[in-house]
Amino acid sequence: MKSIKSPMAGTVWKIVKAVGDTVDYGDTVAILESMKMEIPVEADSAGTITRIVAAEGDVVDDGAVLVELS
Amino acid sequence: MDAYEKLATKQAWALAGGSTSPKSAKLLENKLFVRDRIKLLLDGEPEFEDGLLAGVEKGVPADAVVTVIGTINGRKVAVIANDFTSKAGTWGYQTFIKITRFQELAASLKLPLIYLVDSAGARIDEQKLCFLGRRAWGNIFYNQVKFSGLIPQVCVLFGPSPAGAAYVPALCETVIMVDKQATAYLGSPRMAQMAIGEDISEEELGGARMHCAVSGLGDILVKSDQEAIEVTRRYLGYFPQSYSDKPPVHPTVEKASPPDLSKLIPVNQNVPFDVKLLIEALADDGSVMEVKALFAKEMVTALVRLGGMPVGIVANNSKFKGGVLFNDSSDKGARFIWMCNAFNIPLLFLQDISGYMIGSSAEKAGIIRHGAKLLSAVCETTVPRICVLVRKAYGGGYLGMSGAPTQPDAMLALPTAMPALVGPEAAVNAIHFNHIQQLPESERTAFIAQKREEYSADVDVFSAAADPMAVEAVVHPNELRDELIQRFRAYSLKKAMPFEKRNAVHPV
Fold it and tell me: What dihedral angle (degrees, nearest 10) is formed by the CA atoms of B172, B238, B503, B506?
């Protein structure tokens, strides 16, 4: 199971992809808000999104799984 | 056979290395033979070679290492290259004698030293002569440390460099690694299995990509032997022959089509942008060479030319992790600064920093001491140094990224800069916290917005410029390149040396 993880601690501001969407390396899947900056979270592998794990507004730690990919 | 025939036979045998053995054919499928690597790296054949006949009497061509002097773009260099076709490039007795003698030669002639590494490590059967004593394998590392900062030392890792040999790349200031070929680890996968029960592939444990993206041991990841060599030749063009020279200046390459930078930099300070576009726009066309591009991407370190002059750039990249400083980015910046300072390469900081990372995991990981390391590296520089405030310049990050109190030769600011102890959100919260709590819920948002606006207006760049000690000049981004070239040309006239002392006690 591949997953896309939060690169740093922060709050999930937007999830920009949905279950069933295909993503490629470098696609933005979510945007965090942290240290007063918008932090785009990019896919580090390609696949189809099978589950959105984090919800908008969630406080997440560094390494927290945001979405899962097939 | 007379003496002349003997010489010719032995030379030919040593020059062929193990390249003609059937075992080597497979090895040479994706790799170049050591002497072909050397010929490609240099402007042609080496000028001379030492120790060709070492190891010949015991049947190991050149004792598995080739040591030559030659030129790259007309400048002399010393090369130490393992021959992986000769006893797997392993280190024996004559190997380390050859390596250490050549290190000493390079240092005494003040020549850049290039290690072409492809070695299965030390020979256990020769350990009695080579491990414990004062003249032993460890002298290789001792010399690397002694000559660090004296002459450029570049490691090109084409294959393995296991266990102790892994300190060769670690002690060079620059490591170029060939993807899917180069590896470095202290304990092999088999050892990891035996000692700690970990089941892991060689590539995952110590592959080139892992080292360039995760551990930070590698600086530049390349796809092939040929690319590694091409990159090495180009890379050395930014460096002087030694600490006592200045780096070579090329003719200025003017911008073919300068972009409008006022459109590139987002005015909303919270919106990320790729600082690499700004670097490309400022540097001479085709001159940008990024170092550690895959590691700690929230900071960019790059060698460039500005008006033909080599300059090292340290820039926050808000495209990754908001450009916030972490442990790895602090390491990356500090080491790049030490390297540039050692070799007279002026430094340019492009600052867009909301701060060092906060929170419990950053604190536990030691963000304070890592941040102090970056600050200490900046404060110790003696090369020409300019800092440009691009957008945010907050708190400790402002200092770690070469703020005015760290004594750069110039502080410049773009009109989009916003230097402050903290940003408007945090400041309003800190100053007006009690008042906000007392306000009715319905009035809070409007109050906060108004106070943030007042604060932003108060800390803008023009108030910083009104204090002549904070900013030397506010510059339109489209005029920044020319301004930097003029200033670096002037500042390069200065001669500054560190205070005399034994050594600083660096935070790490």
Answer: -70
Q: How many domains does chain A have?
A: 1
pLDDT digits (tens, 9 = 90+) for B230-288: 999 999 999 999 999 999 999 988 888 889 999 999 988 888 999 999 999 999 999 99
Mean pLDDT of the region B438-446:
90
Closest to B229 measured CA to CA, from B77, B110, B88: B77
pLDDT digits (tens, 9 = 90+) for B37-94: 999 999 999 999 999 999 999 999 999 999 999 999 999 999 999 999 999 999 999 9
Q: Looking at the domain that runs over B261-421+469-491, which CATH code has it been given?
A: 3.90.226.10
Amino acid present at B9:
T
Please name the residue that has the structure tokens 């390149």.
B481
Nearest to B16 by CA among B41, B37, B35: B35
Share of chain B above pLDDT 90, in %: 82
Give the domain extent around A26.
2-69
What's A31's domain CATH number? 2.40.50.100
Instruction: Please determine whether the domains at B3-236 and B261-421+469-491 fall in the same fold group of CATH.
Output: yes
CATH 3.90.226.10 fits domain B3-236: yes
Pairing of strands B75-82, B65-72: antiparallel
The ipTM estimated for the assembled molecules is: 0.86
Whether residue B316 lies within 8 A of chain A, CB to CB, comes out as no
Residues on chain B touching A62 (C-beta within 8 angstroms): 361
Q: Tell me which residues of chain A have a C-beta less than 8 Å from any C-beta of chain B.
A: 7-9, 34-40, 61-62
Contact B323 A62 (CB under 8 A): no
Best interface-test mutation with B: which of A31, A33, A35 has the largest number of B CBs within 10 A?
A35
